[in-house]
Fold this sequence. Notes:
GMP Synthetase, Chain A, domain 3, 184 residues, alpha+beta, five-stranded antiparallel beta sheet, single chain, Ribosomal Protein S8, Chain: A, domain 1
Amino acid sequence: MFIQTESTPNPLTLKFSPGVTVMPSGTAFFTTADDAKVSPLAQELFCTQGVAAVFLGSDFITVSKSEAADWNSLKPLLLAAIMDHLVAGKPVMIAAAEAPAANDNEGDSDIVKQIRELIDTRVRPAVAQDGGDIVFRGFHDGIVQLELHGSCSGCPSSTMTLKNGIENMLKHYVPEVVAVEAVM
């Protein structure tokens, strides 16, 4: 197995592309080893000192490190852990946790449906290329609330992406949008 690594706009994050499906559906983001109990792969990665977060995408894994950790030391350990896990055929997620959460959007207003559609079709694929994800969390009083995962979380350019990219696009297509903000 050959695993490609790519830098991301976030210097604290690396993207690992193993060339196989990681998550058949949905994504998963973990910021602590306790949160990662539903993912044997993420738990293994958190065993490496210096790992601060793990994001599992459709065909990639994004790992964020602590400020003090060094990529020269971490990268070989993470590559080995990912390769050993996937080659052994171990599960990425525990079966019960794989089912995506019910996402009942039937009660959404037309504005929210339009915002979700734009985020899902234009924003999420673009940020996935950089090892991240942006998830819609709400729309209230003209403000779109988005949650940043993977390389987007803590990225120095995330504010610029939110304001100059996503906010401008949403305002253009959905005049009711006045601002976009990140939520935890």
